Amino acid sequence: MRLILPILITLIFSLQTYAMDKNSNSFIRVLLGDKRPSSNELEKIKKVAAKTIVNGSAYHGEIEIWKGNEGYFLINVIQLEDYVKGVVASEVGIHWPEEALKAQAVLARTYAVAHILRNRTKNFYDVTSSVFHQVYKEDEGTEEVEKAVRETKGQILSYNGEPVMAFYHACSVEKTEEPKEVFGKEYPYLKSVEVPSTPSPYTLWEKKISFEILEKVLSMTKISYVKIASYTTTGRVKELEFSDGKNKKLVKATELRRLLQWTALPSTMITSIRIEDDGIVFEGKGYGHGVGMCQWCAFQMAQEGKNYKEILQYFYPGTEINIINENN
Q: From the record, what ranges are coiled-coil (predicted)?
């Protein structure tokens, strides 16, 4: 039986424990690590109140150990507001402008509540701690993050009384992406919008990916040619065509990013492609899927005097802020 988690795991026992109603949204169940079980046929074998260190990242709260056919999994059961602090500190710069941190706190909480409502009754966890959902590591206790979460406590973004799909990403250039181009679905409160220039390090980027890696993820024996086959409505790359000289393979750009573990190809806003002896060089703009709030744009808007409500309304028009509590 192998452990489906990073190698180093330390449990530091404490006296803290939680007595939580399973229907409450005052807490959240977080699957630690980036590996998810292929089925829900697992058995909870132990529950402890402990500080857990997973490859250097610390997690407080209740820890559940689950056993399945694929190995062991750790669930961190933690108060929702503490989880939001961890997400804000992990997702954006901890010393960012106050209003940008507040906007991120509302979105992190909204995203969490939406997944609690969706997953609590049918899964043994609500979200993962990885980029598959929201990046979550324990908040380091910075005053800025604490203040942003405290001053937006319980606030979520809603549309027609329901939590929105709070998609957000690191950086867009010129405009954000339409959700149907990435997630295959339209939302009345998510439209492509023009965005300001930002100081993001990913405004422009260049990435070389070796033939060996590309051929492996695309299940091709040889790649000799690649071209952009189509674009989305906002000008991002929709499909790429790879060829070995005889056979062609059409690949969605969003799928290529997933196969490359996201970071190898920062975004689908690819501006040029060139083939070199040892790989393919992609040049582009922005970072992330491009849907919803652009975090670096929120940074710039806050610098220019916009408050968090104005920032959220710009990226999610027609929505409103509601207050939740554990009885919702």
A: none
Domain limits, the chain: 9-167+292-323, 168-291
CA–CA dist 165, 112 (Å, integer): 10
The per-residue pLDDT for range 152-198, each reduced to its tens digit, is 999 999 999 999 999 999 999 999 999 999 999 999 999 999 999 99
DSSP 142-196: -HHHHHHHHHTTTEEEEETTEE----EESB-SSBPPPHHHHHS--BTTB---B--
pLDDT greater than 50 at residue 17: no
